[in-house]
Amino acid sequence: MADTQIVVLGGGPAGASVAIGLKRLGYEVTLVGEPRPFDAVEGVSDRVVEGMCHAGFERALTTLAAPSARSVTWNGETSAANTERLIVRQRFDRALLDDLQDQGVRVIQGRVTATTEQGSGFRFSVCEADGSEHSLDAGFLVEARGRAAPASGVPRVRGAQSVSLLQHWQGKADTPCSAVQSFADGWAWMARREDGRRYLQLTLDVASRRLPPKQQLGAWCRERLLQLEQAQPYLQDAEPVGEVYARTSTPVLCEHSAGDNWLRVGDAAMAVDPLSGNGIFQALSSALQAPAVINTLIRHPERAAVAKVFHEARIEQLFYRFARIGRDFYDQESQWPQRPFWSARRAWPDSQSLHLEVTPDRVSTGVRPVVDNGLITEARVVITPDQPLGIWHLNGLELAPLLDAIRRDCDLAPQQVLARHIPPQQAAQLALWMQHQGWI
Description:
Elements: E1 6-9, H1 13-24, E2 29-33, E3 41-44, H2 46-55, H3 58-61, E4 68-74, E5 77-88, H4 89-102, E6 106-118, E7 121-128, E8 133-138, E9 140-143, E10 156-158, E11 162-170, E12 177-183, E13 186-192, E14 197-205, H5 217-225, H6 232-235, E15 239-248, E16 252-254, E17 258-259, E18 262-264, E19 270-271, H7 279-287, H8 290-299, H9 304-331, H10 340-345, E20 364-372, E21 375-384, E22 387-391, E23 393-394, E24 397-398, H11 399-408, H12 414-419, H13 424-437
Parallel strand pairs: 1-2, 1-9, 2-6, 4-12, 9-18
Antiparallel strand pairs: 3-5, 4-5, 6-7, 7-8, 10-16, 11-14, 11-15, 12-13, 13-14, 16-19, 17-18, 20-21, 21-22, 23-24
């Protein structure tokens, strides 16, 4: 099983991250993917750039623009304190495929037209970019085709149904920038590249907003953009290019994202509301530990149940964390509380606080799945309200045994107890850290 052929479907950040991670573990990996078929731009923060550096996206990172100004008008107030870096996705995706080849991943530029299970593996029908067709066999499948990935009968949790309408405009070359503005029926995101290419996108509620026929969408979007103050610099001396592109932006969580010989990652496992601006970040977050999960499923099938629980619990936790971030941001917009778009989003997915209070009585230790040297195993960890999956190490120290020791010797100061197990200076620092975390 260690020689299992692994095929990754989808060449975006999640699929690429998993493919490179598996290659580093010594696997032969084939990735089937192609650059995004439509022109689109995304904005990313510095932490996303750090994640892509860690993932090995060297060529793709060279396609990022320098940080540019980002203006936000929300709840009637405007802020311009933040910056973001614009990514032209087609250019980025092409460079990402080059990164994969540089790392030794076999890349097939094209798409899978059919997938069938055979025996303990899969057979794929592949249509390459040059039009040629052939079949490809694999023992393990990584599904990373984003929102376009087939549902495959997997039940899903869905948020309020949203659609995003994107149109390109072309104007004079100018300084790159981006902006966000809320309005009665949704919110708009605008971006301008240095070459004058502009991207104007409206995100709306599917259930409450009756859209006009496709041929009238351009005029419909323009009418609404003309009413937004933030959109004016992007419309000035510019004209629309091409048709409006509509895509779903509904938050979706697959209730099952792992099997004995398959795994879903990125938007194929969970897709968040684009409001957070964390699309690539959440894709990388969901894919970060996937190579260790796959390595365990292949090399240690006796641990399959633990590996699958680990992956699905992590995917679910990330999804609800991002969902609550979006909920809290929507709740800050109080100008139109009864409008369908806002009322449907300000209370979903639940009322649980994003940041839960941590007190000693709410902190425990227990056995949870963890990543250890490229494999999923079980270890005793510290479990808190804000870290329900557990915290295993801090600077190389296993925390659960140390916390258990403090609780057994409750008559002594935590620092004194810790000093029995680790150097005194380190004990003092760790005791202070535990107090700040609310553990003791």
